[in-house]
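Quick check before the chapter quiz. The format below is the same one you will see on the exam, so make sure you can read both the input and the output lines.
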Amino acid sequence: SLRASWSDGGGVWKVDG
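Here is the expected output.
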């Protein structure tokens, strides 16, 4: 599934699992 990772002042979509 996709998870929204908010870091470094930017939103990035990452693959979780």
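If your answer matched, good. The two ends are 7 Å apart (CA to CA).
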